[in-house]
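Hey,
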Amino acid sequence: MSNAPLLQGSIVALVTPMNNHGEVDFENLKQLVEYHVQAGTDAIVSVGTTGESATLSIEENVKVILKTVEFAAGRIPVIAGTGANATSEAVTMTKLLNNSGIVGCLSVVPYYNKPTQEGMYQHFKAIAECTDIPQILYNVPGRTGSDLLPETVGRLSAIPNIIGIKEATGDISRVQKIKQLAGKDFFVFSGDDASCLEAMKLGAEGVISVTSNVAPKAMAEMCRLARQGHFSEAETVNQRLMPLHKNLFIESNPIPVKWACYKLGLIADPTLRLPLTLLSESAQPVVLDALNFAGLR
């Protein structure tokens, strides 16, 4: 943990902008990175779930990450999404990013194939041992079909470059369990915007956030207040964002947030890659209302 980067606060799970042919729009990506630098976002996760990692090729994943690092130019830390449901693929992706300038990798629990706790332990151990890059585990059972239990996280924390976890169960009691088993220096990030303030009250360092795509200043402010112990002020900010926290998931992420970014003029086109489709017409007013409630339109 001694070489772990200091990561805290509002970390955006950045969308990957695309043109209407589904090709990555790197000029728009540059603008997005600049937007977050200026807004005070604490770090960027490049090509996580919200960045459509599942439908980008390994080559595209790596290129988007490297370009994000280039555009950030040392002004904001970049964490790379490098997870896969095949350990060999996750290892390959991680190795391709050695000496790339990223501060860490975010590696999701293998999805679909439903490994045991021992399988998950061996998976993350193999990835960590192939690199010196700090590794952040990512537990999101609602997407993967598997739950990385706190006891397994505790075992994994003994591996020197496994430094933290994005815990997206929404079960805030896990923050304290993980801290007890993995040590107080092990980073815990909420992966659930709606409960992230409650998680921070219990000791989470911050949030890897979907909402931060559209409300970066407010999310950074809310996290800053929470880290300073000003929870009532943080709650005031959070209540303004609560409809976004909930309704950016009215359809599968990143469908609503990409459409919201488009409506705010942050991306030039709301295109997603199949099998994801544009936000349905019936859901659009709900997302607009949440943007309005947050004072973003």
